[in-house]
């Protein structure tokens, strides 16, 4: 699987991770959410470690994928409804 390195800068610290290439777009969409989430958690510098940041990164990527999927599903449903309405209108106008 192709992977890509991503970097997050949180409170003057750099965190670097390898993620699957196909997760890059969801990562970029969620990057600010990840940083805000971690910065809003009350913690000491010692408590902020790679595991916490990586967990937040994975959660944000999955969340972004779900949001995108829901948007795509809704758009697809809207298209199907429009097609059905058109077919009903054609049938009624015959």
Description:
The chain is of the alpha+beta class and 94 residues long. It has 2 helices and 2 strands. The protein has helices at 24-40, 50-92, and strands at residues 3-10, 13-20. Strands 1-2 form a two-stranded antiparallel ribbon. The model has no long low-confidence stretch (mean pLDDT 81).
> How many β-strands, per DSSP?
2
Shape: elongated
Lateral arrangement of strands in the main beta sheet:
1-2
Q: How many DSSP H or I helices?
A: 2
Termini gap: 55 Å
The description of the largest β-sheet is: 2 strands, antiparallel
**Percent of residues in beta strands?**
15-25%
Q: What structural category characterises the helix and strand content?
A: alpha+beta
Question: What is Rg?
Answer: 21 Å
Write the element-wise H/E pattern from the N-terminal end onward.
Answer: EEHH
Question: What's the average pLDDT?
Answer: 81
How many individual domains? 1
Helix content: 55-70%
> Which ranges are low-confidence, i.e. pLDDT below 50, for 5 or more consecutive residues?
none
Keywords for this entry:
single chain, about 90 residues, alpha+beta, two-stranded antiparallel ribbon, elongated
Please describe the topology of this protein.
Layout: E1 3-10, E2 13-20, H1 24-40, H2 50-92
Antiparallel strand pairs: 1-2
Helix pairs in contact: 1-2
